[in-house]
């Protein structure tokens, strides 16, 4: 059973990101503040849910939340500041857009940097422990998937509609065959070593 709150503070936000391990597309974060009487039966860590369930939950979360915000950080920024910093920046940007301003932040994972002097805690596997982080994980995942489906139309050969930019065999084969796009993260190891030898042939 997921808990509503971690801290004693009145207004607490949960934040999470999606797409950190992908070769293409943005890293997407969400932050959510839930009301005291929030209940949503199916809500859990987005990785434990089917795509159908996540799509069903998203409008319910948006409707019931006190407020929420979603941010994408594009590949060129990821390449510039690295994926960890990009993930943290995405979460920070979401938090600064929330109204009311949260008194406390709970973050999925083990790394974060202060934002606007708001106290925070990092919680490993927080998305399977706290409702606000689970809600943020569902929003981040569904918004990012929607983005990947959209850019799939532009470059269908990578099949982002299915792999969402993750390093599947099919995705890597397409990189080897067609090269990379503006949506690929150039600082990532896009191909395993044995394929890099014939990359330019």
Write up this protein.
Helix 1 (51-64) packs across helix 4 (131-154). This protein has one domain (12-153): 2-Layer Sandwich (Nucleotidyltransferase, domain 5), CATH 3.30.420.10. Strand 1 (12-18) and strand 2 (27-33) form a beta hairpin. It starts with 11 loop residues before the first strand and ends in a 5-residue tail after the last helix. By secondary structure, it is of the alpha/beta class. The chain has 7 helices and 5 strands, in the order E-E-H-E-H-H-E-E-H-H-H-H. A 5-stranded mixed β-sheet has the order 3-2-1-4-5. The protein has helices spanning 51-64, 75-81, 83-96, 131-154, 160-163, 169-178, 193-196; strands spanning 12-18, 27-33, 67-73, 104-108, 120-123.
Strand line-up of the largest beta sheet: 3-2-1-4-5
Annotated CATH architecture: 2-Layer Sandwich
Overall body shape: globular
Task: Give the radius of gyration.
Answer: 18 Å
Class of secondary structure makeup? alpha/beta
CATH fold group: Nucleotidyltransferase, domain 5
Quickly name the level 1 CATH class: Alpha Beta
Pick out the low-confidence regions: 194-201
How would a crystallographer describe the biggest sheet?
Answer: 5 strands, mixed
Strand segment count: 5
- How many structural domains does the protein architecture include? 1
Strand composition percent: 5-15%
Please report the number of helical segments.
7
Distance from N terminus to C terminus (CA atoms, Å) equals 54 Å
Mean pLDDT: 94
Helix % is: 25-40%
Following the backbone from N to C, one meets helices and strands in this order, namely: EEHEHHEEHHHH
CATH superfamily: Ribonuclease H-like superfamily/Ribonuclease H
């Amino acid at each position: 059973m997921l808990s509503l709150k971690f801290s004693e503070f009145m207004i607490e936000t949960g934040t999470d990101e999606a797409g950190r391990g992908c070769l293409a597309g943005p890293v997407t974060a969400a932050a959510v503040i839930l009301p005291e009487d929030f209940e949503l039966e199916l809500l859990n860590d987005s990785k434990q849910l089917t795509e159908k369930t996540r799509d069903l939950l998203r409008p319910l979360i948006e409707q019931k939340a006190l407020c929420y915000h979603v941010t994408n950080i594009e590949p060129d920024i990821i390449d510039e500041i690295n994926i960890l910093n990009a993930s943290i920046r995405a979460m920070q940007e979401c938090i600064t857009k929330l109204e009311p301003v949260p008194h406390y932040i709970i973050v999925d994972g083990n790394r974060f940097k202060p934002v606007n002097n708001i106290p925070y805690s990092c919680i490993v596997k927080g998305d399977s422990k706290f409702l606000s982080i689970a809600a943020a994980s569902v929003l981040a995942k569904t918004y990012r998937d929607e983005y990947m489906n959209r850019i799939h139309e532009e470059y269908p050969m990578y099949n982002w509609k299915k792999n969402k930019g993750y390093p599947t065999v099919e995705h890597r084969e397409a990189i080897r065959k067609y090269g990379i796009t503006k949506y690929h993260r150039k600082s990532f190891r896009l191909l395993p070593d044995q394929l890099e030898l014939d990359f330019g042939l």
